[in-house]
Write a structure and sequence with these properties.
Layout: E1 10-13, H1 16-22, E2 27-30, E3 33-36, E4 48-54, E5 59-62, E6 68-70, E7 74-76
Antiparallel strand pairs: 1-4, 1-7, 2-3, 4-5, 5-6
């Protein structure tokens, strides 16, 4: 899998509308995986952060949040 983000990239956690439309029972489908996106993570929706680490399968760590995200939960911040 090609990594969508690299360390240092600025990203925004997807919106609450995205959360409402895509999260089922606390998870979101990312490829063929169900990845946790819990109700407590909704507070991060729309917030910007910087990628601090990337892992296998598109897993992303951000500087502002003590949670793991998948690339599909994020949008790039331009400029």
């Amino acid at each position: 899998m090609i990594m969508k983000y690299k360390v240092g990239d600025r990203v925004r956690v997807k919106s609450r509308c995205w959360y409402r439309d895509n999260v089922i029972a606390g998870s979101v489908l990312y490829g063929d995986m169900a990845v946790a996106f819990t109700r407590s993570m909704r507070r991060f929706c729309g917030k910007k952060a910087t990628v601090t680490d990337v892992g296998e399968g598109g897993i992303v760590w951000l500087d502002r949040f003590e949670r793991v995200f998948c690339a599909g939960m994020l949008d790039p911040v331009r400029g």
